[in-house]
Amino acid sequence: MMWPKEGVLKMKILKIMIAALLVVSFSSNVFAKNIRATELSNTLIAQLLTDKNKNYVVEFRSGDQIPLNFEAKGDLFDSTENINNVLNIKKDFFIKIANDTVSISLNGSNYLSLNDAISGNFSLGSDIDHSQIPEVIKVMLAVHLK
């Protein structure tokens, strides 16, 4: 039996090692799973939240409409019915969740922490007619790019 030349043998071993590395990488979810925000469901969100190897990217595209549900619970107050609303996405962006870290990108490749990329505030108020009880309570979440 004749052994291959040393250079040929090294090349074959290198190819086998690269193939094995690719198989291990894909099978262990090293690469982030991309998920369109419009495809999120209660079941998928529950799976993502319980996934021990969190590594995924949620993609939001300009024009997407994401259902938003507001519900209040507690011993101080609650809501009697769910109020459904729609979150209108104005710009493309990507939210990356890797283990316990959340970051955001506008192009899908350069990610920043949420604190470095966005600012905002949360407020609660109402339209008041001084002769009546407030008719509408407004919950406002303002988010801006830095």
How widely separated are the two ends? 68 Å
Helix proportion range: 10-25%
Strand content: 35-45%
Count of individual helical segments: 3
Mean pLDDT: 75
Over the alpha carbons, how many angstroms does the gyration radius reach? 24 Å
Order of helices and strands: HEHEEEEEEHEE
Q: Decide which structural class fits the backbone.
A: alpha+beta
Biggest sheet strand line-up: 1-2-5-6-7
Number of strands: 9
Unreliable parts: 22-30
Shape: elongated
What composes the largest sheet?
Answer: 5 strands, mixed
Could you walk me through the main structural features you see in this protein, from its secondary elements to its overall organization?
It is a single chain. With 146 residues, the protein is α+β, with helices and mostly antiparallel strands. The chain has a domain at 36-114. Helices cover 24% and strands 38% of the residues. Strands 1-2-5-6-7 form a 5-stranded mixed beta sheet. Strands 3-4 form a two-stranded antiparallel sheet. The model is unreliable at 22-30 (pLDDT under 50).
Brief rundown of the structure:
By secondary structure, the protein is α+β, with helices and mostly antiparallel strands. The chain has helices at 6-27, 42-50, 114-117; strands at 33-36, 55-60, 65-70, 83-88, 93-98, 101-105, 112-113, 118-127, 136-145.
